[in-house]
Design a protein that fits this description.
The protein has helices at 2-84, 87-156. It has 2 helices and no strands. It has a domain at 1-84. It is elongated, with a radius of gyration of 56 Å. The longest helix has 83 residues, at 2-84. Helix content is 97%, strand content 0%. It is an all-alpha fold. It comes from Bucco capensis (collared puffbird). GO terms for molecular function: mRNA binding; translation initiation factor activity. Keywords: Coiled coil.
């Protein structure tokens, strides 16, 4: 009987503990919801303030970027105007340089053409000699073969 009472008492305490935890959970839940409901307008205002600050910062940075680009453009134009005075000198220098290099190129090309013509002539002459020698050797070989054939015919007769 005592054991049953103890078990019943334990069950009763367990249920009370669960009930207390459930109530505490509800309180925490209601508290969090209330906190969120209070935070939402604050978060919205903070977001709007941050958006306004970001927009102002962006506009400021865009202004700075535009002014720096304008300054760079002005400097580039000044640099171009300054260098445009040297344009004639540069063109003259380039023309002289190209002319001198062209004469060197033409000289080398002329030398190459001469060597090429000489090499062609020598190779042509060499091939001419080889063909002449080959024809001579072929002529003598055929003549010798003809004589050999005639001798063999004479022997056969």
């Amino acid at each position: 009987f005592i054991m049953a009472k103890q078990v019943e008492q334990l069950e009763k305490e367990k249920k009370e503990l669960q009930e207390r935890l459930k109530n505490q959970e509800k309180k925490i839940d209601y508290f969090e919801r209330a906190k969120r409901l209070e935070e939402i307008p604050l978060i919205k205002t903070a977001y709007e303030e941050q958006r306004v600050r970001d927009m102002e910062l962006w506009e400021q940075q865009e202004e700075e970027r535009i002014t720096t680009l304008q300054l760079e453009r002005e400097k580039a134009l000044e640099h171009k105007n300054r260098l445009s005075r040297m344009l004639e000198d540069r063109d003259l220098f380039e023309a002289r340089l190209k002319a001198s290099r062209r004469t060197v190129y033409e000289d080398k090309l002329k030398q190459f053409q001469e060597r090429l013509a000489e090499e062609r002539r020598s190779r042509l002459e060499e091939r001419k000699k080889q063909r002449k020698e080959e024809r001579r050797i072929t002529y003598y070989r055929e003549k010798e073969e003809e004589e050999q054939r005639l001798r063999e015919e004479q022997l056969l007769k």
